[in-house]
Amino acid sequence: MEPRDLSSHTVYRAGRGIEEVARELGIDPGDLVKLASNENMFGPSPAAVDAIRSSAEGMHSYPKASHADLVARIADHWDCETEQVWLGNGGDGALDCLARAMLDPGQRVLVPNPGFAYYPMSARYHHGTVAEYSLSKADDFAQTAETVLEDYDGERIVYLTSPHNPTGAEFSTDAVREIAEDTDEQTLVVVDEAYGEFSDRPSKRSLLADRDDIAILRTFSKAYGLAGVRIGYAIVPETWADAYARINTPFSASELACRAALAAMDDDEHVRKSVETAAWAREYIYDELAADTWKSAGNFVLAEVGDAEAVTDAAQEQGVILRDCSSFGLPDCVRITCGTREDTRRAVDTLNGIVEVTEA
Q1: Which of 59, 105, 178, 291 might form a disulfide with 145, Cβ 3.0–4.6 angstroms?
Q2: Any idea where the domains of the chain sit in the sequence?
């Protein structure tokens, strides 16, 4: 026998990890700087680490209480009902929940290009089909209502990313409202705010107060530094929130993840330090990198460097791991995660030396 036809499916390519690069180069992992996966430069909240350690002896129990506690904490944070909070195994798990709840086989979704590869992957896993709207480098990847609506053709789900990965561009609240108003009443607008903590703009969550066609996606992977335990969530309209109980997998968020997230939400200092350092790093990259960049509201900066594959390979040889954006359809760009001040300076110095040689 064989699996079903997966020829239309793509493979998610994550940024390379320190351990695999260290083995390949035959060097100490401590000599490498990884700025390829938009991870938190300070690691997880110390409070979250303590919570995981103290919860370890309870791993034999299903996470019923911790799941309920985390949902209640998130609902309180966002001033919504607990039923509106859909926990998932990372932000991608929450995307899967929304696809299961919304898509009938053959229904189309509209995704950004360039954009997060998991939007179309999740839709196809759930037997949907995919259309794209384009973000133009010529327009500095501007995210406007017109950008989306000119390619909209009745899709069941429209995915918006704000801040956008890999460009860092944002939608305004008015633009999201306009998109929701000008699409079909049975179209769900998903606003992915995975990098929302790094932005100066408010969340689009306020739109849910009077709309039943917008959902907000958030994650603990970025500002909270919990990418390794996989915990994220969606905030959905109250009118159809009870669908979660019908489509959720059993205990989709683990005990460790829930306990870590609960602790991380109370560690305001860790988030503040992470956000402030990312803001410093963005400005440093804009000012000091010898390559064109785009303004970003995330914890990363997109830079135009020429041959991205050659540049990332050269940087890696010098101990700096960056993200080649060829997989985003941007073969002349790299994405630089905002690191600590020391790591950011090292990355910029390394890149400047490589770009200078390339241009010469």
Answers
A1: 178
A2: 18-44+268-359, 46-265
